[in-house]
Amino acid sequence: MSWRKATFKGKDVWAEVDALGAPVVQGGRTPIRYSNKSGARIYRGGASAVRVDVRSPVEALPAGVSADAAPAAPAKGKSKRGSGFGKAGTRTRAQAALAEAAAISLIDSLPSGTVIAFTDGACKGNPGPAGSGAVVRFPDGRVAEACKSLGTATNNVGELTAIWLALHLLEESGIARTTPVALLTDSQYCNGVLVLGWKAKANKEIIDTVRAKLAQWPNLRVHWIAGHVGIEGNELADTLANAAVGGVTDVRWSTGE
User: Fold this and answer.
1) Residue 228 known to be catalytic
2) Residues 228, 230, 250, 257: which is the catalytic one?
3) Residue 164's Cα: distance from chain center in Å?
4) Which of 16, 46, 97, 172 is 20 to 30 Å from 105 at the Cα level?
């Protein structure tokens, strides 16, 4: 592969280029990477947003790894739960930029007509006053926002209930069960027990309830994104969850206009 320095939505990247130095376009998207180091993650950014620096040389960078590739299986007896983006509140500026870019790349890669749901849970004390928030955006412009106060609970219960809340909004919307849906959670725990096959030691009842609801949406995919890196839907879900911690339970629908 050959690469050239470029920008993508204001961020410095390397874009894959052809023999003439022009960006490679596949299905309207161009492979990009945020590092020139070996093993760098390779994303697919919207081609119209990739700006190649024509003054920069064409480079043969070390091999990268597709961001869509399945992660390697962890060693027996160990659980690999790290993202490489650090943790909210302690991640570096560089980690935050990479996390934001990864989330944007994921959202940009979703097919037209996909419903996008953001979920978040919050808890003060763990266990302590807890709440859940969900934001669901529909292709027809409708937006549903919901928050649910949970009383005393753990943060993981808040995160799982937020996903349940988003699924409830999907049911209320009246869309077909076969509609493509991307559900974006910033909870490594939820991604683990719902997607990666982690064995749940607690919260089995709500996990089973959420799994059963997910099974009713054959084209729904749960994705993990880093939280608190400036992704609007995630930040709004967090605001709703924190309102729920304060005792608020509410559902609001709008046309998006």
Assistant:
1) yes
2) 228
3) 17
4) 172
